[in-house]
UniProtKB/TrEMBL annotation:
Its main location: cytoplasm. Gene3D superfamilies: YqgF/RNase H-like domain (3.30.420.140). It comes from Algibacter agarivorans. This is Putative pre-16S rRNA nuclease. Belongs to the YqgF HJR family. It holds the Pfam family RuvX. The gene is ruvX. Its EC number is 3.1.-.-. Residues 2-100 form the YqgF/RNase H-like domain.
Length: 136
């Protein structure tokens, strides 16, 4: 089997998480500067087999699209061009940032460490991936 890769897309940084090859465990991989994201994905898919890309879908409480969707749609168009053989799915990402922050508190990270926005993005991507795996 191949891995599933999930992204918590942001205009500055994008958190990335992947499954193991059996698609059982979701793990945070890294946070990448969004300007370097496509190149990172090209390099990653050269070394690892990826069968599915998940992109977080930010929604408002009334289920309408978030303002950040304006930035995500063009990115997805580039993804589709760059990786025509890998399907792309959207996963509702409501509350993942709050859940990521709470995870940091629960795991005992000090206040100073919890200010690390890159870590929050990576944990958010992991939560997006886990929610997809649970729904499968």
């Amino acid at each position: 089997m191949a891995r599933i890769l999930a992204m918590d897309f942001g205009t500055k940084r994008t958190g990335i998480a992947v499954t193991d090859e059996l698609q059982i465990i979701a793990s945070g991989l890294t946070t990448v500067n969004t300007k370097e994201l496509l190149q990172f994905l090209k390099d990653y898919t050269k070394n690892e087999s990826v069968e599915l890309l998940l992109v977080g879908e930010p929604k408002q409480m009334d289920n309408t699209a978030s303002e950040s969707e304006v930035h995500i749609k063009p990115f997805i168009a580039k993804l589709e061009k760059q990786f025509p053989n890998i399907p792309i799915l959207r996963v509702d990402e409501r509350f993942t940032s709050k859940m990521a922050f709470q995870t940091m508190i629960d795991s005992g990270l000090k206040k100073n460490q919890r200010k690390n926005k890159a870590l929050i993005d990576e944990i958010s991507a992991t939560l997006i991936l886990q929610s997809y795996l649970y729904s499968k």
